[in-house]
Structures are given as C-alpha cells and as structure tokens.
Amino acid sequence: MNLLSRYIFLQIMFPFVMSTVIITAIAWLTQSTRLLDLIILQGQGAGIFFRLSLLFIPNLAGLIAPIGLLIACIYTLNRMNQDSELAVIYAAGSGKWKIVRPFIFASLLVTVLVAAVNAYIMPKSLQLLRAEVTQIRADLLANLLQPGRFFSPLKGVTIYFRERDKNNDMLGVIIHDRRNLAEQITIVAKRSSLIGNEGGNFMVFYDGSTQRRAGSAEKTNLVAFTKYSYDLSGFAPESEISYLEPKEKFLGDLLYPNPTDPYFRSFPGKIRAELHRRLASVLYPLVFTLIALAFLADAQTARQGQIIRILLAIFTVVLVRGLGLALTNLSAKKDWAVLLVYALPFLVILISLFYINLNQVGSFLRSRRSQSLISNAG
C-alpha cells in the first residue's frame, strides 16, 4: 500500500470505528432494556445487567458494521471533495482506481469482521445469554420457594419442602402435578435441587418415589428412584427454553441441521433463510462501499450537486438492503428465492464497478481531449 492509499485508508477507518461504536451503543441501550424486568424482579446488581446486555453487542455489530462503513465512505469522499483533495489527486495524474483501492481494502476488512461475527461470535454470545437468563430464572424460582410453605408456580402444580441445607438444596420435598387430567403425578423425595441449562429449568430429586394415578382410577403406581428429573419448562414461555433459535445456531448447525431438532422440524424454511442471510451479509460491506464510490468518487465543484449525490447513494443503499431482506424472508418459503438472495448483491457490485470504470474512461477521454486542444493551440 503506497502513501496515498495508506492516507485514504486511515481517513476511512477512523470515522468507521466512531460511527460503528456510536450506533452500536444506541442500539445496545434500546435492546438492553428488555432485560430490566428480569433483573429487577430477581434483584440482581448492575454488574449482572451490564454483563448480560453486553452479550447483545455481537448480534448488533454484525448488522451495524456495514452501515458504519457506508457512513465512513460517504464522510471521507465528501470531505476529500470539499477540501479539493480529489481534484488535486486527479490533476496529478492519478487514476480513479488509486482512490478506489483503499476503500475496497477497508470493505474487505469489514467483510472479515462480519463473517467472524456471523459464523461464531454472534451465536456463541446469544447462547451464553440464553444460559445466563435461564440460570437467573432458575434462581428466581429457587428464591420464591420458601421452606414450610405450599407454592403453586402454575395452576395444577403444588410444591412443598421442609427446609434447606447448607448447599441450598431442598429437603423433604413433595410436588403434586395434576395439570394432565389423564394422569396425576406425586413426587416425594428426601432431597431436591434446581438446575438451569440451555435445555431449560429442572428439579432433580434424590432418593424418593413417584406416585402416578390415571384419571379416576383408585390404583396408584408407585416407583422408587435414586435420582429423578422433573422438567419445569412450563414455568417459562416455551420459545425461551425448548430449542435454540436460528440466530443462536452456529453456521455449521445451519448448514447441516439436526433432523431431530424441534425447530428444524417445525420451521425448516427459517433455518434455510438464516443460513443464507448470514452468508449473503458478508457481501454487503463491499456493496455499500462500491455504491458510495459510484456516486461520490468524482471530484465535484457544486455543493448542491454533491448533496444530491449523497442522498442518491443513501437511497440506493436503503433500497438494495431492503430488497435483500425481503428476498431473505421470501427464501424461508420459496427455494428459488435463495438464488436471488445472492444475485442481488452480485448484480449491484457489477453495476457499480461498471459505472466506476465508465467514469474512469470518461475522465481519461476528457484529459486526452484537453491535452490535444492545448497542443493544437501551441
């Protein structure tokens, strides 16, 4: 990278970092408020709140980084034009591609960032967030359960335990579940503990028995156990605990989904749409950069004309990204829409490159005509 390219590259990266950080911070504040109810209800401190809300950032960064790059490109090109840097560079005999090259290099760096976020960082952070929230819900249930009192977390479910030990386990536990009218279950155990993981919340009983009675039958089936798990999935919305959502899956899990995954069996189209959304999103940093270059890489003298070009670039980006999201949603229902998800950014890249080259040829022909007129006049 020569001196000019390094200069332009640094001029791009500083506003890119600043705009991305600012937009991410604003989006982070709006998203993190969703955790306030849970944190306040649980009585957790500010440290837990910030730790959980920070896990939202990778999901936001993957969406915001291309927008931050677009803002940086527009700002840099507009500033270089206002300071007559573009005019000086072109007058010195440098071709347009010497201007374009550092912008494309910056877009490739952002592409690598977006790819890393989509492939691993985002799903990992969302899985950690799910695990943390699940554990907090388990702790909340544990705090609501008080020794010597009957507690009904759901209609038809009653829990009682005698006391807690030094490990906070429940001793002398009885749970009666009559939600299923066809079969009532009573569990009696010496000890029980609450466990929360990605699969949900569970009560694990030790050294006890289960009593099952079908409907109005007088006979009760008694089964002794040394360890027994009771699913508390009904104590929270099903969508929060029963399965990983597409955004929480790694790229390999989307590419080769587990046939037994309940979400995949119910919504295979959404899994496909999320896969191609992540793969196609790595093209948009380059798409946004080339759109900005196509409209703003030429030196302009009229301020009003420059403002119109900026607005046209922004409008084109919004239109292209909106169509991309619409095609991604359509791919969840129609297999053929997957091709359009990739065709759109590739088509915009080709059109932008053609327009940049067309302007390059025009500038070259104008310079040759000027030189010819000067020589003839001499």
Please tell me about this protein's structure.
This protein folds into 2 domains: 3-139 and 243-377, no CATH class; 145-241, no CATH class. The model is unreliable at 236-241 (pLDDT under 50). Helices cover 63% and strands 16% of the residues. A 6-stranded antiparallel sheet has the order 1-2-3-4-5-6. A hairpin with a 6-residue loop joins strand 5 (200-214) and strand 6. By secondary structure, it is of the alpha+beta class. It starts with a helix and ends with a helix. The chain contains 13 helices and 6 strands. It is elongated. The chain has helices at 3-32, 36-42, 46-54, 57-82, 85-91, 96-144, 238-241, 251-255, 262-266, 268-281, 284-296, 303-331, 337-377, and strands at 151-154, 157-164, 170-177, 183-197, 200-214, 221-231.
* Rg (C-alpha, Å): 30 Å
What is the terminal-to-terminal distance? Answer: 39 Å
SSE-based structural type: alpha+beta
Mean pLDDT: 83
Helix/strand order = HHHHHHEEEEEEHHHHHHH
Number of strands: 6
Which keywords apply here?
378 residues, alpha+beta, 2 domains, 6-stranded antiparallel β-sheet, 13 helices, 63% helix
Question: Helices and strands in order, then pairings?
Answer:
Elements: H1 3-32, H2 36-42, H3 46-54, H4 57-82, H5 85-91, H6 96-144, E1 151-154, E2 157-164, E3 170-177, E4 183-197, E5 200-214, E6 221-231, H7 238-241, H8 251-255, H9 262-266, H10 268-281, H11 284-296, H12 303-331, H13 337-377
Antiparallel strand pairs: 1-2, 2-3, 3-4, 4-5, 5-6
Helix pairs in contact: 1-3, 1-4, 1-6, 2-6, 4-6, 4-11, 6-11, 10-12, 10-13, 11-12, 11-13, 12-13
